[in-house]
Amino acid sequence: MSKRSLADLSTNNYNLKEPHFGLLFDIDGVLTRGRKLLPYTRDAFRKLVTTSGQFRVPTVFVTNAGNELRSSKAAKLSQILGIPVSPEQVIMSHSPLKMYTEFHKKHCLISGQGPIADIAKNLGFTKVTTIEQLCDAFPNLDMVDHKKRRGFHSPFRDYFLPIEAVVLFGEPVRWETCLQLIIDVLMTNGNPSSPIIRPPVSHLPILASNADLLWMAEAALP
């Protein structure tokens, strides 16, 4: 190899042929541990981009997390890695739900934490009800939070449209409340105001984008 070739390779401005491969990086446990960046991660990514911040190789970040929008996850990655990451480079656990167009016009009950209504609408869902909104419409169904129980009839209940599908974006803050209400919705075929005569033979569809019950963060144990 000539001295000129070696000099070219030592700069960030040399031109490479278009790569015939790409890179997919998991985030949790690979790049970060909870909120902490793992050692040498930034150094490694500086070698993956040019001086102008362009990726030399097509790069995508994948995660089981489902509690935020792709745009906010990309912004966080940009900050901790010190390089620009676009939302198009991020695949969340709920990203594939964009392809489930047959559910986008159905009335869906959504569970999780974070801006789940915004996430659902960003994915294409047009009729969504959160667990919190369901609690407001049917306060006596929540057997966990006694403060939500009311003795009077909720006005929302009379106008509540039956649920047609259940979407789980990830772990909620309160599993007990979510499980109680989701089971009530399934047992009543989407209409919690009606009594249960018999359980439906085939219950409403459930889309679970992340079924993890165990994960690793900063704690010593998962």
Automatic annotation (TrEMBL):
InterPro entries: CDP-alcohol_PTase-I, HAD-like_sf, HAD-SF_hydro_IIA, HAD-SF_hydro_IIA_CECR5, HAD_sf. It comes from the Eukaryota. GO terms for cellular component: mitochondrion. GO terms for biological process: glycerophospholipid biosynthetic process. This is Cat eye syndrome critical region protein 5.
